[in-house]
């Protein structure tokens, strides 16, 4: 079952979790990402809340989520193929420019009072199309910024930056929506896209570590899927991710319902709940920088923990207890993603990594697209609390089944090192 150079089963590499920040190109990229991720979360919150204001329907918020993530379901694998074949920096320049233009349009319409739900849905779909390429390109571009030596820690820092944006963005969006309306959130995202484009043009191209382009052949997509299916570390991680993406990652739908129907807190409560999840996620991401060994069983057990905490959150009777459970959900989410994302990336070779990560992103975003409609309908039909019980309960059961499967297969374990970031799957 070993698919790369074997490493000692009990390897404990030297650790410097923030070493990638010593690389100038990566430092610029990470710095601009703090602004970009904050603005992206601001736009996402403002977009969902604008649809809720226009329609007074939680199900309509679910449709918005579905439209934004549907392109990944339709074209996600092709996006990964583009990432493997073409220059990642140029692809990011195109995608960020596209998102910036769409955000300008939304800002103008929202600030002038001409926004309609159909316009917001169309904008969500266009941004989703850009995300088909943007998201896997961002994931894989880290390889070129830091090279092999710092890859695992750079992936971890990227996730922490994403969660920092998730902490800042919803809080600022909640303040903006309550004070001056959500249109300014769209304007800020357009500005953040301009900053990202500027940063990409200022990177030192001589210091990049471009991956060799794969040999073009008519079965490139099948090759990527085949690699995912025959690599246990990737296959089981993606299965666990699929359940979590469809049910547990539909937090905007669930939190909108809790903010309005359960606790009656409105826009400020919605922003607060999202920020509490991000607080826990940031803490979890930073804590995971100390992880030295990647294990497949950690991925599954972290998914079980995350889903179980969400199930418990559905039963919390007050805002403080519900908020505390949301922080724990954030921690659980990062325990899962900081185990799964690096494991999947490091389990794939550089020539196929774009396609492998496209599968990962497809499941993350496509699952949310399907789950947005599914959970929106469930919440509308049976209420917020039962809906959240389902959102946590189904992935928890799936995690228990996967745990039993892995136990019967010998509890596979994956070891990796910062000095030599290839992995080997070895028995416990």
TrEMBL record:
<keyword id="KW-1003">Cell membrane</keyword>
<feature type="transmembrane region" description="Helical">
    <location>
        <begin position="265"/>
        <end position="286"/>
    </location>
</feature>
<keyword id="KW-1133">Transmembrane helix</keyword>
<keyword id="KW-0472">Membrane</keyword>
<dbReference type="InterPro" id="IPR036259">
    <property type="entry name" value="MFS_trans_sf"/>
</dbReference>
<feature type="transmembrane region" description="Helical">
    <location>
        <begin position="238"/>
        <end position="259"/>
    </location>
</feature>
<feature type="transmembrane region" description="Helical">
    <location>
        <begin position="388"/>
        <end position="407"/>
    </location>
</feature>
<feature type="transmembrane region" description="Helical">
    <location>
        <begin position="322"/>
        <end position="344"/>
    </location>
</feature>
<keyword id="KW-0812">Transmembrane</keyword>
<feature type="transmembrane region" description="Helical">
    <location>
        <begin position="356"/>
        <end position="382"/>
    </location>
</feature>
<protein>
    <submittedName>
        <fullName>MFS transporter</fullName>
    </submittedName>
</protein>
<keyword id="KW-0813">Transport</keyword>
<dbReference type="InterPro" id="IPR010290">
    <property type="entry name" value="TM_effector"/>
</dbReference>
<feature type="transmembrane region" description="Helical">
    <location>
        <begin position="58"/>
        <end position="79"/>
    </location>
</feature>
<feature type="domain" description="Major facilitator superfamily (MFS) profile">
    <location>
        <begin position="190"/>
        <end position="428"/>
    </location>
</feature>
<dbReference type="Pfam" id="PF05977">
    <property type="entry name" value="MFS_3"/>
</dbReference>
<feature type="transmembrane region" description="Helical">
    <location>
        <begin position="298"/>
        <end position="316"/>
    </location>
</feature>
<dbReference type="InterPro" id="IPR020846">
    <property type="entry name" value="MFS_dom"/>
</dbReference>
């Amino acid at each position: 079952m070993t698919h790369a150079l074997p490493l000692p089963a009990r390897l404990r590499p030297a650790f410097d979790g923030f070493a990638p920040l010593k690389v100038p190109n990566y430092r610029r990229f990470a710095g601009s990402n703090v602004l970009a991720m904050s603005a992206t979360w601001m736009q996402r919150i403002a977009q969902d809340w604008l649809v809720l204001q226009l329609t007074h329907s939680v199900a309509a918020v679910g449709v918005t989520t579905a439209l934004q993530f549907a392109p990944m379901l339709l074209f996600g694998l092709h996006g990964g193929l583009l990432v493997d074949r073409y220059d990642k920096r140029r692809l990011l320049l195109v995608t960020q420019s596209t998102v910036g233009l769409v955000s300008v349009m939304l800002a103008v319409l929202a600030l002038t009072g001409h926004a309609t739900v159909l316009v917001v849905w169309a904008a969500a779909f266009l941004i989703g199309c850009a995300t088909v390429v943007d998201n896997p390109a961002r994931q894989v571009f880290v390889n070129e910024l830091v090279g092999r030596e710092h890859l695992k820690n750079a992936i971890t820092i990227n996730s922490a930056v994403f969660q920092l944006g998730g902490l800042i963005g919803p809080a600022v969006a909640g303040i903006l929506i309550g004070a001056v309306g959500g249109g300014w959130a769209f304007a800020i995202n357009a500005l953040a896209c301009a900053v990202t484009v500027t940063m990409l043009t200022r990177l030192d191209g001589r210091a990049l570590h471009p991956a060799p382009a794969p040999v073009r052949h008519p079965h490139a997509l099948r090759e990527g899927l085949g690699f995912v299916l025959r690599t246990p570390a990737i296959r089981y991680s993606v299965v666990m991710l699929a359940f979590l993406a469809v049910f547990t990652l539909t937090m905007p739908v669930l939190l909108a319902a809790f903010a309005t129907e359960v606790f009656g807190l409105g826009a400020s409560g919605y922003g607060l709940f999202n920020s509490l999840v991000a607080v826990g996620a940031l803490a979890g991401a930073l804590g995971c920088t100390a992880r030295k060994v990647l294990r497949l069983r950690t991925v599954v057990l972290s998914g079980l923990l995350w889903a179980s905490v969400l199930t418990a959150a559905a039963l919390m009777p007050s805002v403080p207890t519900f908020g505390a459970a949301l922080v724990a959900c954030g921690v659980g989410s990062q325990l899962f993603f900081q185990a799964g994302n690096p494991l999947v990336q490091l389990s794939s070779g550089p020539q196929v990594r774009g396609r492998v990560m496209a599968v990962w992103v497809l499941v993350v975003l496509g699952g949310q697209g399907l789950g947005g409609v599914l959970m929106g309908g469930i919440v509308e039909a049976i209420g917020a609390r039962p809906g959240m019980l389902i959102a946590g309960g189904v992935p928890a059961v799936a995690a228990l089944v996967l745990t039993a499967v892995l136990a019967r297969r010998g509890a596979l374990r994956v070891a990796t090192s910062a000095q030599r970031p290839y992995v080997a799957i070895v028995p416990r």
